[in-house]
Amino acid sequence: MPRSFWSRIDKDDCDKGNTVNSDDIECRRYEELLEEFVELCEGLVERGLPYLAVILCHELYRFLYPVEPYANFTNTEPVGFVIGHIKRLIKSGQSFSKSVVPYDVNLSLFSCCKEEQTLEKSTSALYSELWGGFDTDDLTNESFRLLTSRLPKHIIEENIVGKKVLDMGCGSGRYSIALARVGAGQVIGVDLQSKSFAVAKQWCEDNNLSVQFEEGNVHQLPFNDNVFDFVFCNGVLHHTDSIEKGLQELSRVLKRSGKAFLYLYASGGVFWTTRRALRRIFKRIPIAYTKSVLQMIGMPSKRFVFCDTWYVPQETHTTRKQLTEMLERTGFSCDKIIGNNMFDLDAAIERDVTDAKKMWGDGEHRYILELQ
Length: 372
Description:
By secondary structure, the protein is α/β, with parallel strands linked by helices. The protein folds into 2 domains: about 5-100 and about 270-310, no CATH class; about 120-265 and about 315-370, Rossmann fold (3-Layer(aba) Sandwich). It is about 50% helix and about 15% strand. The chain contains 16 helices and 9 strands. Strands 5-4-3-6-7-9-8 form a 7-stranded mixed sheet, with helices on both faces. The protein has a two-stranded antiparallel ribbon with strand order 1-2. Helix 2 (about 25-45) runs antiparallel to helix 3 and helix 3 packs antiparallel against helix 11.
């Protein structure tokens, strides 16, 4: 999308002329529009236009982040922009639905008949499927860039290089690879099912990188107490039925002198409110159908954040206060670190972007943990 298009929208269509002094009024207005948007999309699914619902949700969600590089867009006045943007999407959806006569759509053809699975296995199965879009660069180089930009240099040098490291809930295994590449003495990646890390395991074997992968549940890690110098737990525990139980396990396997990195979803603001609301819509649309629509519109396969957001079985959002209380109960002291990547919500809040707290709430939780 040309930059000039977004410059024009940012100038003319961001509700700047209707700016109000009360934060509560502005937030309530967005919530009203969001409810109207969700009801519109649910109606589109019922009418046989689920593809339009997918496209509208994609267009709303992609512009909630601080940047959208595929559109050369930077969110400098995010709340004003998103109010104008959701109004345009509602208007477009209503207009389109009045102008077409849909064919009958049998969404059940896109649904796979699967055995009833536990929360853990259904989550693992979803991510194993989504990580199939990773290429070698995503698996190795991008993860290295993200790790070294998000972890403070002194943490890498003092707590990872030459140390025994656990990647707790390693998923695809890409951060296990990155931890080994920055110089960890021993890396063990644990995830529920081996199919999640199968590609990473093969890559490590082919490239003589010493990383050990094991199956295991983050609530019942297959290790003795006090064995790891550093535990890396990135975006895992909010997908389980108990963040606190996961923290207890992390505490158990971490050496008293060790440290850990924890990333969890936060809460509050337009971003997290919208993320929760859109999940309602996709209870009606099979993931295979959604993926086919996103592929049809040309979305790169590695942008798994959309299906991640909409389909993961469990997603717990916590405020900063809730999380710090949990950390205290499980015996941790913590230091918050700010992400340095363009997508990181905390970075936008730190830069004092206009209405950043209203837009992104508590941002994201990134902490260095240490046992008290």
